[in-house]
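anyone seen this seq b4? input:
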Amino acid sequence: MRDDIFDEYLSSILNDKPAEKNPEDGSALMTEEPEKQSEADSAEDIADFAEKTIRLSDSETKKLAGSLPSEPKPTKFIHRKIIRKANYSAYGGIVMATLVLCSSIVISLFIIVVGRDFLGIDTNNNVTTLYVPTGSTLADISHLLADSGIIEYPEVFEKFARLRIGSDGVIYPGDISVMPSMSYDDIIEMLTVSREAHATVTVTIIEGMTIDEAAKVLEDNGVCSASDFIFEFNNDIFGFDFETYVSSSSLKFYKYEGYLFPDTYEFYVGDSVYNIVKRIKERTAEILNESVIRRCGELGYTLDQVVTMASLLQLESGRLEDMEEIAGVFYNRLKNPAEYPKLQSDTTYRYIENVIKANTSIDYQEMYDAYDTYVCNGLPVGAICNPGADAIHAALYPNENSYYYFCSDAETGEFYYAETYDEHLANVELAGLSV
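predicted toks r here
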């Protein structure tokens, strides 16, 4: 509609003659051919047309502009990556070859390690006597050997024994003496031979005994030589946790004094020294376990220091309540070294005289002083006996008190405690002692 009006308007200007309307529909009609205009009139009409055209409303202009076609959008070119297909067959071959190589190495190492245990290569010759109970299965015996440190692979031993003995093979109960250096075949051969049981003996190590005294008890009961036992006990390491906490001071007379736990043991008569020492240290390891080692750290002392403290308490009294109170006195002194540098326990004299001097032919004053609590500061260099469970408990859980002195009545066994030296002198007189 808008275009028809515009055309009519343009025609009227150019022809300078109003257009007639059709009476029927109102449309413009041309009745005559327009006369030709001069150039000047045409120019004027065109100018007038331009001016009128410019005056069109903004809305019409916007509508007109909106109807125009928009500019074409630029064409986007999509760049696609060229994906090259990997040569998975080559990679798979490399991975497979690597796996085969690694598997071969692992299998070879396993064969070497198990083979050494199978043949007993590079192992020790320490003799261990084991008792095989009646009715033991091959699985039972395999684990018995493994627990005793004779073999490392009980499952392998069991399978080999089944092949070696067969379904009709007989395993005899009783005692066998074996070594880690023996092959599986030698051990199985020994198990299939009838044998007599070894004689056994029951030995009791009393609380407060020294290693020398315990060794003499073992020798008197026909278990082993005293000198062999002392050497083995202080020089061989069995891999127990407590052994790593034992100091190796050159001033110690026996390195493992204090670590022979007093108890009742059953040994084979004439058994190997190694087997006997291992048996005792296994029991000691049960007592000086992880919780005991942790408690030592809570107190601020090493296991070696606590065992040394326990050895003093063991010889000071045989009653737990007394040992706990005395432990409080000793720890009070250790915490106040400026005023009380010495523990002053008479018990250390006996160790110097009966153990150190009795086993040496030359004077070693520096070692004597390291054990003498009237000379050395704080604890002695090492334990002076082998303490029992009560003494160890008292050293770990002392009574908290404010005492720095104590003494006891030799006849009644009663203990007296004091905070000051003057109070101590009065207690000494009360106990019938002399300073």
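DSSP finds 17 helices and eight strands in the chain. Confidence is low (pLDDT under 50) at residues 17-21, 23-36, 56-62. kinda curious what u guys think
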